[in-house]
Amino acid sequence: MAKKVVIDPITRIEGHYSIEIEVEGGRIKDAWARGDMFRGWEIILKGRDPQDAVNVTQRICGVCPVAHAMASVKALDSAFKVTPPDNGRIIRNLMAAGNLLHSHILHFYHLVALDFVDITAILEYKGNDPTMNNIKEWVKKEVSTGSKTAGAPFLPRYKGDYIKDKELNLTAINHYVKAFEIARTAQEMIAIWGGKMPHVTGIVPGGVAETVTAERIASYLYRLRKIKEFIDACYIPDVIAVAKAYPQWFKIGAGYKNLLAYGIFELNNEGTETYHIPGAFIEGKLETLDQKNIKEEVFYAKYSSPTGLHPFEGETTPDPKKPNAYTWVKAARYNTKPMEVGPLARMAITHLSGKRPEVSNLVTNTLKSLNADVSALFSVLGRHACRALELKIVAEQTEKWLLELKPGQPVNNHYEVPKESEGFGLTEAQRGALGHWIKIKDHKIERYQCVVPSTWNCGPRDDKGVRGVIEEALIGTPIADPENPIEAVRVVRSFDPCLACAIHVITPESNEVKTFRVA
Amino acid sequence: MRLTRRDFLKAAGGLGAAMLTSPFLTKVAEALEKGNKNIPVIWIQGQTDAGCSESILNTVQPTVVDIVTDIISLKFHQTVMAASGHQCIDVLHEALKSNEKFILVVEGAVPVKDDGIYCTIGEDDTGKPITFLKWVKDLGEKAMYVVALGTCATWGGIPAAEPNPTGAKPVTAIIDPKKVVNLPGCPARPHHLVGLLAHLKLFGMPELDSKRRPMVFFARLIHDNCEMRPFFEKGDFAKTFAEKKCMYLLGCKGPITYNDCPNYQWNSGLNWPIRGGSPCIGCAAESFIGSTGNGIYMRLPEAKVPGIPGLKVKADKFGTVVGAATVGGIIAHAVGRALSSKKKKEENKESKGE
Fold first, then answer.
1. Across the interface, do A10 and B85 touch by the CB < 8 Å criterion?
2. A52–B295 CB contact, under 8 Å
3. Which residues from chain A sit within 8 angstroms of residue B126, using beta carbons?
4. Which residue of A84, A131, A234, A347 has the lowest C-beta tally within 10 Å?
5. pLDDT of B103-118, one tens digit each?
6. What is the DSSP letter of B246?
7. pTM, to two decimals
8. What is the pairing mode between strands A279-282 and A285-287?
């Protein structure tokens, strides 16, 4: 008997995305990942003032706008031949740090936690916290209505092996609530320098628009320390508690084990040195990054433009009815290889580079405390752990950078938009390596291409039919009940995808394909 | 624990004392004491970056939890809900079948080219993807009210910017505008949505302007209440970012953008773009991004300023200090002065950068 199960859409991610999975003998045998929404940013940017790109590209993603602003402004800086002064560089780092703090915490608590935490445990709450009691009363009332959607948006959910430890569930629910405040606080840290958030106006070519005052430094520091407390007291202990409750998830979702990182947090104004180390980890070997090795293939993507182009030559011509094509996401490749990007790639490459002893120590000690070796990082839990550890490191470094600011000193340098030029900006969004490439002609944008983290992680097969990163990571994942494929969404969400997803599960045990609805 | 009148007034106080004087909010506070049933909300996302959702999460008082437990019943929201796949699509089908009233929140533009194939959510019984266009039509028809959340849903936004590759449309182009309320802004602001939902729940449709925006939030131009306005009046203009003066010459869109940023700032009142040293980019304006020639940092058409034909509609709102006719003169004078001083500086080979 063959089964085809469709999950469409996958929720608790950003965007529109879908995956088709074949299951055999209780395990995923094959997978197809699809992006379900197209807007055409690169087409819209053509012919516009290059300066507009910083604001326009932020609107690619409301979760990681600072990362897009950074990639874009670095592309413009390089094309305009301008660099920021110290204050400008540091403030950009402070905004990028705020965006990372916001997104990782939101991802773990508000996007991922409901795959592990049993929200109904709130009914057993006996404490005095008014918010917890408020939620408890609300759930009680909701459940009593008997409505099909009672308890929405937290119910219904897949049947699955949720956490059974009552205290752990209650702690996690409490932190789920608290994390809203923490995420908002991180957004405020960005707004202090960026004017507003989501979507800052304060990142400009040559630096930033906000000035340095002691009051702003103090305002940022107060919030940073509050978040640091949360990371140490809640986030890291919660990730470790989930890891201890689900040790088998250190062995699920490995993928290709090829990693790519561009580096982030500039330590000099030329941007040649970053705190996170750039590099490409291919088949067990760490190589120096060279952006010339990046190509995008489109045989399976819904574009009629040529395949195998470097982003400087990139084209984006939509063709929704193209035969064979199953996604709006292109297949990004580095030296023809599919590469995983994200916190796992950043932490592993920085660790392996040996250049940041505090990163290496933290990674090694955490693995030791979990009785796991480095290979455990290539897994669902490995990705969550790297995200949490990265946040601890970044919060610590950010405090140092903050105190390097100098009130009264300039925050930007003068620039002119050149008649003709080109440039690129490489950085890291929360979910991985992000690059923007620009070509300018007659003071206007002639060509603009973005290769986003989800192009790497969520993309389809390449021209040779080699699977994309999430497609490969799904292979071998056990599916206990194809009608409640909670395991598949755990793998997908561990990548923090930045597009809305749908998953299709096919179980071929004969030539016949029977369609089942996933309830 | 329900939201009480006292809680609400405290919350409104957090938004700024000015709001407390609004009769609208006092009425909301009174009505909250009646303890109405939470109103079901279905929130769907099309051509969006989820920035509006992220923005709403920045709400301070009431908190996100207060909103979900006390004001609305959030039946569907892809970024928040536990359910995946058909489990969550069934919620939408259920809403179409049931007689229960609900508010539809649409975040993002609606692509209509090629029958809407550029954005799909879920599949039908035959495995064919269901377009966002169809969801907006079907759910919109059934909904009691529709909130077009953000600039993309209100005007079409960047997806609809030239050359509009996917035929992106605003919500009012898809469903009967009479039930739609527009909340433009990129992103939309937390107190706008929370205030609107509370109003719809307690009193029905609020007072709207001709573009279906609530008057309580969109009656005034940014320029009317801008803290840099005294610099504008004096003709003292910033020539680079971070100068903290009137940014008219840097392309500020405050004079054509209706929003309440100067009154309530952003992110718990910490900052807002103009205070932050950059011009307003007009993210709530109908012309945001728009045509290729419409640059973010491009000065509002200089030629039009003296007689203000381009700004004529807004001229009467330029402030109570001066009348429309004099404002034209002042702008022309001020801009002229700034430009000539800039020219002089350049002649003296002084750097105009920071």
1. yes
2. yes
3. none
4. A131
5. 999 999 999 999 999 9
6. B
7. 0.90
8. antiparallel
Which part of chain B is CATH 4.10.480.10? 222-347
Selected for mutation to probe chain B from A4, A6, A11, A49 (highest B CB count within 10 Å) is: A11
Which residues of A are known catalytic residues?
14, 61, 64, 68, 431, 454, 498, 501
CATH number given to B5-218: 3.40.50.700
Q: How far apart are CA B306 and CA B309, in angstroms?
A: 8
Q: Does A365 touch chain B (CB under 8 A)?
A: no
Closest residue of chain B to A502, computed from CA coordinates: B85
Q: Which residues are within 8 A (CB) of B109 and not within 5 positions of it... i.e. 6 or more apart?
A: B46, B47, B48, B152, B153, B156, B157, B159, B160, B168, B169, B170
A76 at B interface, C-beta within 8 A: no
- Of A94-98, A298-302, A365-369, A498-502, the range with the lowest mean pLDDT is A498-502
**pLDDT of amino acid B300:** 87
AA identity, residue B122? G
Distance from the first to the final alpha carbon of chain A = 20
Q: Where are the domains of chain A?
A: 1-37+468-519, 38-118+162-466
Question: What's the confidence (pLDDT) of residue A176?
Answer: 96
Residue-wise pLDDT for A240-269, tens only, equals 999 999 999 999 999 999 999 999 999 999
End-to-end CA gap in chain B: 54
Nearest CA in chain B to A119: B82
Q: How far is residue B2's CA from residue A130's CA, in Å, rounded to a whole number?
A: 11
A141 contacts chain B (CB < 8 A) = no
Q: Encoding tokens for residue B186? A: 């990129």
Pairwise CB contact (< 8 Å): B118 & A38: yes
Residue of B nearest to A85 (CA): B354
The first and second tokens of residue A423, run together, are 């440039």
Note the Cα B303 to chain centre separation in Å: 29
- Match domain A38-118+162-466 to its CATH number in 1.20.1250.20, 3.40.50.12780, 1.10.645.10, 1.10.10.1590: 1.10.645.10
The structure tokens listed for A482 are 């194809």
- pLDDT value of residue B6: 55
CB count within 10 Å of CB B87 equals: 20
Q: What architecture does CATH give domain B222-347?
A: Irregular (4.10)
**What angle do the packed helices A357-369 and A343-353 form, to 10 degrees?**
110
Burial class (CB in 10 A: 0-12, 13-18, 19+), B236: middle
A232, A403 Cβ separation under 8 angstroms: no
* Residue A127, helix vs strand vs coil: coil
Distance between CA A99 and CA A117 in Å, rounded? 25
Give the ranges where A256-333 is alpha helix by DSSP (H): none
- For B198, half-sphere exposure in the C-beta direction (CA atoms, 13 angstrom radius) is 28
Report A:142-181 residues touching B (Cβ under 8 A). 148-149, 152-158, 177, 180-181
Q: Pick the closest to residue A210 from A410, A502, A434 (CA basis).
A: A410
User: Which letter does DSSP use for residue B70 in this model?
Assistant: I
User: Number of C-alpha atoms within 13 angstroms, CB side, residue B18?
Assistant: 8
The residue ranges of DSSP E strands in chain B, in sequence order, are: 39-45, 72-77, 103-107, 110-111, 120-123, 129-131, 145-149, 168-169, 180-183
Q: Does the beta carbon of A140 lie under 8 angstroms from any beta carbon of chain B? A: no
Cβ contact B54:A63 at 8 Å? yes
